[in-house]
Design a protein that fits this description.
The protein is of the alpha/beta class and 412 residues long. The protein has helices spanning 16-31, 46-57, 63-70, 72-87, 119-126, 154-164, 198-206, 214-223, 279-289, 318-330, 361-371, 395-405; strands at residues 2-8, 34-40, 92-95, 103-104, 113-115, 131-135, 138-141, 146-148, 169-174, 195-197, 227-231, 242-245, 258-274, 297-299, 306-314, 338-351, 378-382, 385-391. Bound molecules: adenosine-5'-diphosphate, aspartic acid and magnesium ion.
């Protein structure tokens, strides 16, 4: 018996008709002799709608109730997918996360998968069930509360199931036919990659390329899951899509593999903080406790005992960050003259394992942005990426210019 994992994202299950099309694909894999674990997302737009309800009801919401609400979109599609398969005479049933049970940490809205027991589902396969439909994105904590895995988390559910069941492959069906050199919505010159290395995909995902959730790539890398991204809209051959694989399995690649962006960033500056040992801990400790995901950090040169500390975070965490800093100030843990939030910035990054062995890549990025008249507000680099924070109005221009400058429309 070979188990195949097939994951269908929001647009692939957006209507009953699309669910039927997805179910037909599943039926074909059953006919090919696989037992199939199907992971489904909520219908397109549903999770955003639910998040909106929560934010409107309670701006600084209790994350446990957020999870109770936003996880519900997947319950609907899991049941509908099982019903559709049954209508096609394919033996199928649905599982919500807690029924598996997919056990996670209790970090609500960003929970980590800790355990996926397989006995129950394997027993059903043994009894003739052909498809286990699992509601993606959700699990249950050891405290018995419903959790979610962070936005885009159904990808991670899929890879985790593939690892737990030792699946032959994990196919991620989405609305593009693979991983591109950049988001094909930003430039028509974006080129589909036949293969991409785990490390590059990991960086692209964590820097905003939402085609795969970052943790799904981490898991695939750790458990050596054969991970493929492909379109649920087009008929595709068996070697279609993009294979995410080990670096050794890629013959040739460009120095820069791709350009990623994250649209909704904010830059926050704490003005006039005391420049003393422990100040960074006093600022970033409370931010972490408040659940603010701080990304880039810059500390200005000290000016007579005080300094400015700038950091970036997702724009929807600005309120939390402001409250955490105001609370820390009221408690006497830090002192600052002002807190300025710039909520009109975005982050653009270039990624490639080739950067390890090529000098001058960052310089070329900065020159390209200069030639377009784009001011860089913050820079961070690592071994295989360079990221800049710029005004959001320049996002498309920057991505297109960098894609051109590094010749990403051409194969290596
Ligand atoms: P799903 O609902 O199937 O999970 P997502 O919307 O989460 O789909 O991810 C697919 C989208 O990711 C694409 O429609 C595309 O706009 C975006 N995307 C961003 N960067 C890339 C990239 N480098 N390659 C392919 N798609 C990308
Ligand atoms: N429905 C969830 C989201 O929109 C999870 C997913 O689609 O992967 O984030
Ligand atoms: Mg997704």
């Amino acid at each position: 018996m070979s188990i195949l994992v097939m994951k269908f994202g929001g647009t692939s299950v957006a209507t009953l008709d699309r669910i039927r099309r997805a179910a037909k694909r599943v039926g074909r894999e059953v006919a090919n002799g696989h037992d199939v674990i199907v992971i489904v997302s909520a219908m397109a737009g549903e999770t955003n709608k639910l998040v909106g309800f929560v934010e409107e009801t309670s701006p600084l919401y209790d994350a446990r109730e957020y999870d109770a609400v936003v996880s519900s979109g997947e319950n609907v599609t899991a049941g509908l997918m099982a019903l559709t398969l049954q209508e096609m005479d394919v033996p199928a049933r649905s599982w919500q996360g807690w029924q598996v049970p997919l056990i996670t940490s209790s970090a609500h809205a960003a929970a980590r998968i800790e355990e996926i027991p397989t006995e129950n589902i394997l027993k059903k396969f043994g009894e003739g069930m052909k498809v286990a439909v699992i509601a993606g994105f959700q699990g249950i904590s050891r405290e018995g509360r419903i959790t979610t895995l962070g936005r885009g988390g159904s990808d991670t559910s899929a890879v985790a199931f593939a690892a737990a069941f030792d699946a032959v492959r994990c196919d991620i069906y989405t609305d593009v036919d693979g991983v591109y050199t950049t988001d094909p919505r930003i430039t028509s010159k974006a080129r589909k990659l036949d293969r991409i290395a785990f490390e590059e995909m990991l960086e692209l995902a964590s820097l905003g390329a939402k085609v795969l959730q970052t943790r799904s790539v981490e898991l695939a890398m750790r458990y050596n899951v054969k991970l493929r991204v492909l379109s649920s809209f087009e008929e595709m051959s068996d070697d279609a899509g993009t294979l995410v694989c080990a670096e050794e399995d890629i013959v040739e690649s460009n120095v820069v593999a791709g350009v990623a962006y994250s649209r909704d960033e904010a830059k926050m500056t704490l003005q006039g903080v005391a420049d003393r040992p422990g100040i960074a801990a006093a600022i970033f400790g409370p931010l972490a406790e408040a659940g603010v995901n701080v990304d880039m950090i810059v500390q200005n040169i000290s000016d007579g005992g005080t300094t400015d500390m700038t950091f970036s975070c997702p724009v929807n965490e600005v309120k939390r960050a402001e409250k955490a800093m105001a609370d820390a100030k009221a408690a006497g843990a830090i002192d600052f003259a002002g807190l300025v939030a710039d909520t009109d910035v975005c982050k653009v990054s270039i990624v490639g394992i080739g950067m390890r062995s090529h000098a001058g890549v960052a310089a070329k990025m900065f020159q390209t942005l200069r030639d377009e008249g784009i001011n860089i507000k913050v820079i961070t680099t690592s071994e295989i990426k360079v990221s800049v924070l710029i005004d959001r109005k320049y996002l498309e221009l920057a991505v297109q210019a960098l894609h051109d400058a590094f010749g990403l429309h051409r194969a290596a």
